[in-house]
Amino acid sequence: MESPAAPAVPRPQGPVRPEVPITTTPPVKRQRRWSVAALCIVLAVVAALGAAAAVTSASDRERVLAVARDVPAGRALTESDVVVAEVSADSVLAPIPASQKATVLGKRPAVDLRKGGLLLTSQLGAGTGLGDDQAQVGVQIKRGMAPAGTLAPGDKVRAVTTPAQGDEPAKEGTVPETIDAKVVSVSRPDATGTVVVNLAVAPDDGPVLASRAALGRIALVRDPRGK
Fold this sequence. Notes:
The chain is α+β, with helices and mostly antiparallel strands. It has three helices and seven strands, in the order αββαββββαβ. The chain has helices spanning about 30-60, 100-105, 205-215, and strands at about 60-65, 80-90, 135-140, 155-160, 180-185, 195-200, 220. Strands 3-6-5-4-7 form a five-stranded antiparallel β-sheet.
């Protein structure tokens, strides 16, 4: 005789889990689009302002005269000494306009002009003060016969006649013969230290100074610059 089947035991059920809806955050496409658009607008404005500034800057530049090569004081300007350059219109140096190039050729600067510098009206005033109405004499000065490295255009000097070879020494209290002069320009020293000094002197003193300079009997004494 078969035993009766065991009754089915109900399966315990756990706590009922609440249903949680699955949600996702939608992409903020519209906000990103506005950000990109705003950035593009800012960049476009900056570019426009930069272009406007460049155009304004270019239009405010003017053509002026500049120095093409070194020119010593007192030497007349030539076509090769002057070049045209462009500078800002608000330059405080007041350079000479390029349109006046023809008027400056032949003028003598009162100071040494350096290559690359602007040419100023103050450098080319009427009369340089460096012997425009005087005789000019080039004097070769050996090392030790003039103050080393201190002579400059405009300096007042005395050209002193030195004794000739074989002459007796000057007696005490004897004043050597001198000629008052003004330095027009000074060359660079050569390998031996010799320089050529252009001196402006009175017209009557020019031949005398030239003859003494030819004999190598000239020494220069610079007067105090405060006088």
